[in-house]
Structure formats: structure tokens, C-alpha cells
Design brief:
Layout (H helix, E strand, L loop, with lengths): L5 H5 L8 H17 L5 E7 L5 H18 L11 E5 L2 H11 L10 E2 L1 H11 L3 E7 L19 H7 L1 E8 L13 H8 L4 E6 L9 H11 L13 E5 L2 H15 L2 E5 L13 E4 L2 E4 L21 E2 L1 H4 L4 E8 L3 E4 L4 E4 L19 H17 L2 E9 L2 H9 L1
Parallel strand pairs: 1-5, 1-6, 2-3, 2-4, 4-5, 7-15, 8-11, 8-12, 12-15
Antiparallel strand pairs: 9-10, 13-14
Helix pairs in contact: 2-3, 8-11
């Protein structure tokens, strides 16, 4: 079993890579060598949740920075100015924590996209190579509340870097203001050198192919027959309090077990605690602690909180407990999970709908994307509880 610093270990540049990950590292480094004098080049890394995208990205960056800072004079990557960008505060904490213990990495090598763009515009200096983790979280429209006045994060990053390497998964788009699609990403490939590499080996969920298919289907709203799997602990609960008790027992034994929920219960950033109640179960949402240097998933005290997609995206857990909240129900007519966007409490996810075709369907897609993210966190187990009694009953029948 992994321990409570599993995320830091997982993303360590010293971690051994698989064959495809090593091939990807070599491909990206070769791409950078070939195009380091070009005005603009784009490399796209695609892959579903759990395929090791962030792992290999940080290994690539460590290789680039080692050569940039220690390379010989004839090394084409020597002296280059490189960055990693991620629009996810919890992941940024993790990357900076790792940088503090690596000889060729610095905390200042990692930044949020808006900060990078605004600093570059102010100084007029371009970076050489920029790696973007979780590129599906980049903004696709202005967000003046967060000081981004331009139209598209990636467009601006390409403006301020010679080579851009992005990690992308369209099934992890969570907001209208980050409304990415494969087609939209394709528009940025045109007119510049571009390569794509797809990672498809699942490294996180240590389950049989049948169980992984069951989880993947659930994240799309589909209900498949469930098979016994001795390699993965998949449980459906009729009692949320019992789920939490069992999860706490697993956490005491193995560590790195956390409870998560769809964003279907009221939560406001007002400094107060907000709670999720399901029968005898009553627990607060995760607290917003922007000054906390340790990511939410790695803090031992957060077993006493319920995490959201925003605190857990990009992280691994040994066991994940997941509450399917009121926005999800059993659609008996189609024998699948139905979605009620009006019950989804993340109103910010649906701001900026201009230009989005079929916004009602897009809302459902965002909710299912968020579900997909939280369902795919557990390495060794997944415990499920549904708010809707009919959905609970149907899940128990799978």
C-alpha cells in the first residue's frame, strides 16, 4: 500500500517510468531539441485519468531543467528558460514541494497560467519551453475576477513560449470557462510544428479490466453488470455513515483514504464550515486553506472532511469513498444515471455560457466529467453511496 506522501512519491522525477512513458519522455525531449529555435511548436500528451500523465510530465521537466542548468555548451537545451504551468492550486503545491528536494528544480519553475501570462506581457520576455499540466483546466474565455483579460490561456501561452507541451483529457473539463474539446485543441495545431502522443495504460486503478470498465461506464452515466474482483475492493452502500466508518478503518490501516462527493451540497467560501448530511452521516466539506503548503489529499486531518473534484483532481488515494449527490438519479426509462443540473451547487461551473452550443447538455457533460474524476481516484478500492434511493437500489443490483 502507498503511504500518506504517495502523491509526492508518485510525481518524483526519480520514479521509474514504464516503457511507453520512457518513449514519451524521449519523444518530447527530441521535439524540444528539434524546435528550440522555432517561433512556435506544440506537443500534445493525451490520456485518461490515471494513465500517468503528470508523472511523466515532471520527469520530462526534470530532464529539461537538468540539461538547461548543467548541460555542455554544445547542448541545444543548455541555458533555456523553461516553466511548468498548472491551473490547479493543489497540484501547484505538490509540484513546488517536490522541487524543494530536487537539485535541478526550483519552486519558481512552477506557476499558474494567468500569472505566467501577465508576467510575460509585463516584461516582454518569452520562455523557451513551457509544460502545461491539466491543460483541460486552462481558460477558454476572459475571467476578469482572476485577472485574465484575454480570450484563451493556451493562445497566450503559445504567444509567450517557443515550445509548449500540454497534457490534455477532454473528460476532465469541469467549467464552461474552460470549455475544451478535441476540435478546439486541434485549431492550435494548425500553422505550427505539432506532435501528439497518447497514453493508454492505466496506472492508478489496480483493478481487473472488467472493473475498470464498470467504473469508466459509471463516470459516463452507464450501468454495467458488476463482476467479483479479488484485486479491487468495490463496495456499494445503503448507509453513508457505514461507508464513512469503513473508510476510516481503511485509513487507519493503510493511510491515504478520503471521502469525496459530487458538488451537490451547499458550499460557500465565507470562512465558515459547511456540511454534508445523509441520514446519520454528517461531515463538513473540505476547508479552503490557501496558505496550507501541503495538498489536501496528503494532509492526515482531511479524513475528517469531504473533498470535492477541485481538491482531489490529479491525486491518487488508496481507497476513495464517493457520495453521488442529488444531481444524479436513476433514470429507469433508460436504465442509466440521469443528471439534474439544477441540483448541482457549483454555480461557477456554468458561468460564461456564451458561444456554447446546447448549454443544457453541456451542463450534464460537466457534471459527468466531475463524477468521472472522483470515481477514478482509488488505487485499491472504491466505496459508493447514492443520495437517490432508486439509484442506490439499482447500483446494488449491478
Amino acid at each position: 500500500m502507498t503511504t500518506d506522501n504517495a502523491a509526492t512519491h508518485k510525481l518524483s522525477p526519480g520514479r521509474a517510468l514504464s516503457g511507453p512513458q520512457t518513449e514519451l519522455l524521449n519523444r518530447v525531449v527530441s521535439f524540444c531539441e528539434q524546435h528550440h529555435r522555432d517561433e512556435s511548436a506544440l506537443f500534445v500528451i493525451e490520456g485518461a485519468a490515471g494513465t500517468g500523465k503528470s508523472v511523466v510530465l515532471n520527469a520530462i521537466f526534470n530532464t529539461l531543467q537538468t540539461r538547461a542548468r548543467n548541460g555542455r555548451g554544445d547542448d541545444p537545451l543548455q541555458g533555456l528558460q523553461n516553466m511548468v504551468i498548472v491551473n490547479h492550486p493543489e497540484m501547484l503545491k505538490l509540484y513546488r514541494n517536490i522541487a524543494a528536494i530536487m537539485p535541478n528544480l526550483r519552486k519558481s519553475d512552477y506557476e499558474r497560467p494567468t500569472t505566467f501570462i501577465n508576467k510575460s506581457a509585463k516584461t516582454g520576455k518569452r520562455a523557451d519551453i513551457v509544460l502545461v499540466d491539466e491543460a483541460h483546466l486552462l481558460l477558454t474565455r476572459p475571467d476578469r475576477y482572476n485577472h485574465f483579460a484575454q480570450q484563451n490561456h493556451l493562445e497566450e501561452i503559445l504567444r509567450w513560449a517557443r515550445i509548449v507541451v500540454v497534457v490534455f483529457d477532454p473528460l476532465q473539463v469541469l467549467k464552461f470557462k474552460s470549455h475544451w474539446s478535441v476540435d478546439l485543441l486541434d485549431t492550435f495545431r494548425k500553422g505550427r510544428p505539432s506532435e501528439t502522443f497518447h497514453l493508454d495504460t492505466q496506472f492508478r486503478v489496480a483493478a481487473s479490466p472488467a472493473t475498470r470498465s464498470w467504473i469508466d461506464a459509471l463516470g459516463q452515466g452507464r450501468l454495467l453488470p458488476r463482476r467479483k474482483d479479488p484485486s479491487f475492493d468495490l463496495r456499494i452502500y445503503d448507509d453513508c455513515a457505514m461507508l464513512y466508518a469503513d473508510l476510516c478503518a481503511c485509513n487507519a490501516k493503510y493511510g491515504l483514504c478520503r471521502l469525496l462527493s459530487t458538488y451537490d451540497y451547499p458550499y460557500t467560501l465565507n470562512g465558515e464550515d459547511h456540511f454534508i448530511t445523509e441520514g446519520a452521516f454528517h461531515l463538513r466539506w473540505d476547508r479552503s486553506l490557501p496558505t496550507e503548503k501541503q495538498p489536501w489529499a496528503e494532509r492526515p486531518d482531511t479524513i475528517d472532511e469531504v473533498g470535492s473534484v477541485y481538491t482531489i483532481q490529479g491525486f491518487d488515494l488508496n481507497y476513495a469513498g464517493v457520495i453521488l449527490g442529488p444531481s444524479l438519479f436513476y433514470d429507469a426509462a433508460h436504465d442509466r444515471i440521469g443528471v439534474r443540473p439544477e441540483r448541482y451547487e457549483d454555480s461557477a461551473a456554468f458561468q460564461g455560457r456564451d458561444g456554447i452550443a446546447a448549454p443544457d447538455e453541456a451542463k450534464k457533460r460537466v457534471i459527468l466529467n466531475a463524477l468521472n474524476v472522483i470515481l477514478t481516484r482509488g488505487i485499491h478500492g472504491l466505496f459508493l453511496y447514492a443520495h437517490d434511493p432508486a439509484l442506490r437500489k439499482r447500483l446494488l443490483q449491478t
